[in-house]
Amino acid sequence: APSDADAPTIFDKIINKEIPSNVVYEDDKVFAFRDINPQAPTHILIIPKVKDGLTGLSKAEKRHFEILGRLLYTAKLIAKQEGLDDGFRVVINDGPKGCQSVYHIHVHLLGGRQMNWPPG
Ligand code: 5GP
């Protein structure tokens, strides 16, 4: 039986294209698609194709160093592709207090409007 860390999420179905999504980037390790509930004119989720226990950033281990770097580097590539030349934001929500809802690590890339530092 799969452990909790290996339990599939909706993102597996998105990667496998069992659930359609608006794909903006894909390579052998990384997949990126538009958020279904965008919080900015550009709102993209960047995820590892293989979760490898990385349900969230709080579960990161040394074996994840490479994929963590690739996720951030891909955010930069997509920001450029999306024309976010005046700036953008990346966010990783973790756990209940971080408002994480899907337990397959994902980097949010937000842009196309002025961001405001969260006052809450
Ligand atoms: P979290 O709240 O875990 O940081 O982010 C999860 C994100 O996944 C949310 O912004 C939510 O809108 C997005 N999301 C959840 N289900 C789907 C889906 O089926 N398709 C797409 N494109 N985005 C989804």
From TrEMBL:
Any GO MF annotation of the entry: adenylylsulfatase activity
Transmembrane segments: none
Native organism: Arachis duranensis (Wild peanut)
Name recorded for this polypeptide: 14 kDa zinc-binding protein
Domain HIT span(s) in chain numbering: 10-120
Range within the parent protein: 51 to 170 of 170
Renumbered ranges of motif Histidine triad motif: 104-108
Positions of the catalytic residues: H106 (tele-amp-histidine intermediate)
